[in-house]
Amino acid sequence: MIEAVGLTKRFGAKTAVDALSFQVKPGHVTGFLGPNGSGKSTTMRMILGLDRPTSGHVTINGQPFRELPNAQRHVGALLDAKAMHGGRRARTHLLALAKLSGIPEKRVDEVLGVVGLQEVARQRTKGFSLGMGQRLGIAAALLGDPQVLLFDEPVNGLDPEGILWVRNLMRHLASEGRTVFVSSHLMSEMALTADHLIVIGRGRLLSDMSTHDFITHNSAGFARVRAAEDAPGTTGARTGRSLLGTALTKAGGRVLQEPGGALRVTGLELPRISDLAHEAGVRLWELSPHRASLEEAYMRMTQSSVEYTSTEDPRAELWEPEPLALPEWEEETAPEVPSETAASFFAPPPPAAGGRPFLMPGSPAELAAPAAGTPAAAPAETAPAGSAPAEVGASAGKTAEKTPEDPR
Known about the structure:
26% of the residues lie in helices and 21% in strands. By secondary structure, the protein is of the alpha/beta class. The protein has a 6-stranded mixed beta sheet, sandwiched between helices. Strands 11-12-10-13 form a 4-stranded antiparallel beta sheet, with helices on one face. A hairpin with a 2-residue loop joins β8 and β9 (204-210). The longest helix is centred in the middle third of the chain and has 16 residues, at 160-175.
């Protein structure tokens, strides 16, 4: 078992792992999820004694990794598939690791057979592809037949057959009572492999629960309903879909229309939807439950913890799916737009304008001329006799005279 208590790691002013506490129990495949930069690799390095925690501690079967006698026999790990000397042959690489840990030579050939690299055992590792490097790294982790296994992105670079093999291997190792801790960004694969999930963001623990509970708590399921377009006794525009939508809405369901014409219903169970369709006389072509995927639940959980985000692509609208829409029975009729607003923008009429809107002029000349039917505005103030009238557009250095009635 792996147990972390208050695990913290700082690199200068940067806190990579912040008071992280969790347990990885044997007999289960535990997934380790988090955005890039969330501290997953740093946590795994501290588990293996490669980094010293700033505070807190982590133990494997009750002991720190550095204190385990012959640690290769207790813990197997794959953190970097390319962490090997490129000039060495695959078998020689494994044989060197075996000699350091007192593992018999025959075990080298056994693990080469487990990962399927017997035919390339004599080739130098610098010519290996990423997938072959992953297989060799997994072989090195299995070399000492350990009870605790840590894998960081073990399916990276593998083909579909290799991904399926890794999935079955992880589950088989866990079924033998081993502790399996796997970090990956492939949500679809983790949903099929992991029994339990530990999710972190910005170095802090976000979730520690089973995969099923994680999806349930961080997503909302729905029912997809597809009804026949015609229904017995319907006339006009009242199709079977609109009849069913109305019935579901009245029963308290939330109904959205998908681009393909199906209805997405939340708030009602499937048997209730079927009963309402029967009462409305609507034939159903589809009635299926849809539970959110692990990817959707993960994105909802970690959306505020993503540290590195890309800018919005202006071409994104070219491939964005058509959004869900309110059905026609829930759409509100848009208010009629006055005919005089169709040609131009208008503002509310000014005071004493007779209630007529002010139309934006088409040229500066129209702006200077008074509007048709509007009396010219009389001067607000009358200058004293003998004084020169103030000119409009006078220079900044010329000050207009004040009238006797001016309160200033």
